[in-house]
Amino acid sequence: MTTTPTKMYLEIVKKIRSIIVEDGLSSGDKIPSERELSDRLNVGRSSVREALRALELLGLIETKRGEGTFIKDFKEHHLVELLGTFILEQDKTKTDLLETKMEIEKSCIQLFTKKAGDKELTLLKEMMESSEFTRSNFFKRIVTLVNNSLMLRIWTIVNSYSLTIAIDKEIDRHIFESLIRFMETNKVDEAILLYEKHFAEFVENK
Length: 206
Fold this sequence. Notes:
Radius of gyration: 21 Å
Structural class: mainly alpha
Largest sheet: 2 strands, antiparallel
Order of helices and strands: HHHEEHHHHHHH
Strand order of the largest sheet: 1-2
Strand content: under 5%
Oligomer: single chain
Shape: elongated
Helix content: 55-70%
């Protein structure tokens, strides 16, 4: 079976991503050169060049003249906002997104109640008293403290999309304190009910 140009291109992008993971590279690190990637993947340099160009257009890597190509910090580029203008035009999609965000956050509350100890509770309370306290940062801390990297990645992306269509609601600090108290005393049902009452986000009908 002959590999189509599109399929070959996508395969190269996936393989470059695998190399980045295998080499343990992260934001700010230099990726292998075009020649090295061509040798490691056993494909032509022109194909590698096209794949790198696509990753650069998405803002995932950047080329510095005379230095090489580097991985960009996900937070630095505006891919979420760019895609959001196309993906989130339909009200149904917006509603689905916010429902997904709510379900993820409720799952995080359940996991935190189950897994968190005194150390995690203290860290959550300290963040709530700091200048960094916001609704998003509160739930980011919860997701981080439950130590589930996949859930953190999913929540981060979904939350970023949601902020393009719904304002991060101002919620009374006492509500957060009550939420922590319920999680601390293993009252997960009460915590979920509190969340559903005060933390639900809705897209304004126009």
